[in-house]
Amino acid sequence: MKKAEVGNVIEFRDGLKGIVEKVNENSVIVDLTLMDNYRDLELDQRTVVNHKNYKIVKESAY
């Protein structure tokens, strides 16, 4: 499995999407404000996702 890099868009847990802000050894920190319905879902702005629990939707343009 390929690990996400900073700037990648990932999808996880029932279709949530976010932009990777930091890559750690076992997880990534994701900014969820990318989603149009972010405010409606009443989620925190950032969350931590284990590398096993996401798929890369869009590669970083960097």
Any overview of this molecule?
It is a single chain. 6% of the residues lie in helices and 44% in strands. With 62 residues, it is mostly beta strands. The chain has one domain. The longest helix has 4 residues, at 38-41. The model has no long low-confidence stretch (mean pLDDT 95).
Straight-line distance between termini: 21 Å
Q: What order do the SSEs take from the amino end to the carboxyl end, as H and E?
A: EEEHEE
Strand content: 35-45%
Number of strands: 5
Please tally the helical runs, counting DSSP H or I stretches of 4 or more residues. Answer: 1
Major sheet size, sense and barrel closure: 5 strands, antiparallel
Q: Rg to the nearest angstrom?
A: 11 Å
User: Helical proportion?
Assistant: under 10%
Strand order of the largest sheet: 4-3-2-1-5
Q: Uncertain runs with pLDDT below 50, 5 residues or more?
A: none
**How many independent structural domains?**
1
